[in-house]
Amino acid sequence: MGRRPVTVRLARWSAEHPWRAIALWVVFVAVCFVGGSAAGLNEATDEDQAIGEFGRAQLIVDSGGFDRPATENVLITARSGSLDQTAAKAAAQDAADRLRQVDGVASIGTPMPSRDGSALLVPITMSGDPGTAGDRVQPLRDTTAKVQDAHPQLRVEQVGGPSIDKALDDTLGKDFKRAELLSLPVTLAILIIAFGALIAAGVPVLLALSSVAAAMGLSTLASHLVPATDTTASVILLIGMAVGVDYSLFYVRREREERAKGRSGLDAVEIAAETSGHAVVVSGTAVIISMGGLLLAQDAIFSSLAVGSILVVAVAVIGSLTVLPALLAKLGRWVDRPRVPLLWRLTAPRTGQSARPRFWPAVLKPALRAPVATLLISVALLLALAAPALGMKLKFPGPEDVPRTTAAMQAYDRLTAAFPSNGTSHTVAVRAPAEQADRVRAALTDLAGRTATDPLFAPAEGDGPEIQVSADRRVSVLEVATPHASRSDEASRSLHELREDLVPATLGGIPGVEYAVGGGVAASEDYAAHIWAKLPIVAAFVLALTFLVMAWTFRSVVVALTSILLNLLSAGAAYGLLVLVFQSTWAEGLLGFTSMDAIVTWLPLFLFVVLFGLSMDYHVFVVSRIREAIDRGMPNREAVAHGITSSAGVVTSAAVVMVAVFSIFATLSMIDFKQLGIGLAAAILLDATIIRAVVLPSVMTLLGDANWWAPRFMRRRTVVAPAVEPPPAPAPELVGAR
């Protein structure tokens, strides 16, 4: 007999030396976590994240070394009717006097009336690091609240970047706390239903959490090679829980099945390692390839996400091949304790005639009896669902997409209504030789004058445009405001008018000049263009390497090709569903959002690689079971029926866990997370149901023996199938005439 696969050898050693394997795993996780904490996190800089002209503008501004302190404002408006100017000035003076006594306030500006006299604005400059201003703004807000109490006939409120940041942090903090509190109990509850036993349900969660902890530490170490962003930890948790639970679920289910057939604990672990363990390795490789494609985006955010995801998947695969067999061997039949009486009777592994499922054969019947019609109808429905994706628009969320449940955002709306120049703005950044500084200032003043009479722009408040000049006189910056919302067509037109007409016309003739237009609108448009340019490259890389892995694993070009096509169909349907839900208004009340008439810019690329990777989990597991049956000599149609019905329970359980966890993200306040949660949950649901239970069996039944065609150099050698008992014959109604 040939040498056993590495998955079996690892599992056997772990099962024979469980305490050593468990101890090594605990040490590994501890060393990774502690080592990462000691090394510290290296975060991406503006230079790392510079994309397009927006990125160039940001780098020019940074090179000027400007002192840009955090600023706040006290906004005074009437509760109804016109503003009493005398009362407003008294309130403004009161606010200035009180705020000067507050730690963290550097200076108070002169009160500024709005052009229409409806508001009075008191500017506040904060001291200290602008990056931590949101953490230090509360004493200012408390003082403003006291001013409000002293002047009840007016509306006195505080608004500014730090206040909005704090309000958003508080909202997101509550959201994530709720999500964390819900996700773990929901996952455990679903696993208890799937296994009918508490310990069996706890093992996948334990492996997933320990994998996440180890990957967090490793990603911190890796940040010194690939700088991290503030989203990396969230993605590690999201992906780690998904694959960690999936891989354990596959493995534990197979081990329990083999024990139910009378195998010893060690034999059951070995068979699980040779079958499910092998599927886990292939699935993990597919996920790693998909996530690795993000590195081709040449983007600090996606590179950081790729590294974190690759690490957590790799750790989860290692854990499922080492510590998981050790735990199962040590627990033995205790893994099925304590049992939940009713659930145990429904979920306990069965053998013989009683093991034959009834639900899934009924679902499979159309695909096996009429594969052509079933395939055409199901694919047509999925293509129809995918069709709206052709009209997908990409934009960054703007201030208008932040929930208006906070006082800070309600005040922001009143601020921008009274003072339009405090809303959306474009940053004109200029770098030129110091001797050209006067010409640059004259050109920027001319630019401000041209925009002041253009309805696409908002005129500067106060005494005219404020042009910032660096100490070395090489860098100059002008903020050009627009009265339109950041995602509006008017805001986009104002950006293009600046970039294509006004800025070149006023600055283009200065010798040695370098300029760029940035700001929020520019960031959205430039990043969307970046995503559309990189998506085909990333997709081609992921498709090509996944094809090679699947072809080599199953020794079949046809299986590899159908795998790719089915996952593309699943991803396309998910894209179409996202567009249907979020680029329209019909679901606003149902899901609690305001349509931004677009999809968040970074989502399509991230969603593609995540869905492609996670979908392969199910595909590899199902096709592996079909291949096992083929290797034992079962005809293709019966093998398809057996492979899908025998894997349906575990695939369904894994999918329900993922859908439930991802759906929790759809309850968060921010539109980014709603779209991410709905997109992932819907795609996994479609993939585990229509794709795996309808389209896949239709295709494999229709192709018959052609499923396993491959060039001579790829064909399998004679193999010995896993030592498992033959499955019960499929029900006659599944087989049909061949």
What this model shows, in words?
The chain is α+β, with helices and mostly antiparallel strands and 738 residues long. 63% of the residues lie in helices and 8% in strands. The protein contains 25 helices and eleven strands. The strands form three sheets. Strands 1, 2, 3, 4 and 5 form a five-stranded antiparallel beta sheet that branches. A four-stranded antiparallel beta sheet has the order 8-9-7-10, with helices on both faces. The chain has a two-stranded parallel ribbon with strand order 6-11. Strand 8 and strand 9 (475-481) form a beta hairpin. The longest helix is centred in the N-terminal third of the chain and has 35 residues, at 161-195. The chain is elongated and about 90 Å long. The two termini are 36 Å apart. Mean pLDDT is 86; it is low at 718-738.
* Largest sheet, strands/sense/barrel: 5 strands, antiparallel
Rg over CA atoms:
30 Å
Q: Strand percentage, roughly?
A: 5-15%
Distance between the termini: 36 Å
Give the helix proportion (percent range).
55-70%
The SS-based structural class is alpha+beta
The coarse overall form would be: elongated
Q: How many β-strands, per DSSP?
A: 11
Mean pLDDT: 86
Tally the helices: 25
- Stretches where pLDDT is under 50 for at least 5 consecutive residues are 718-738
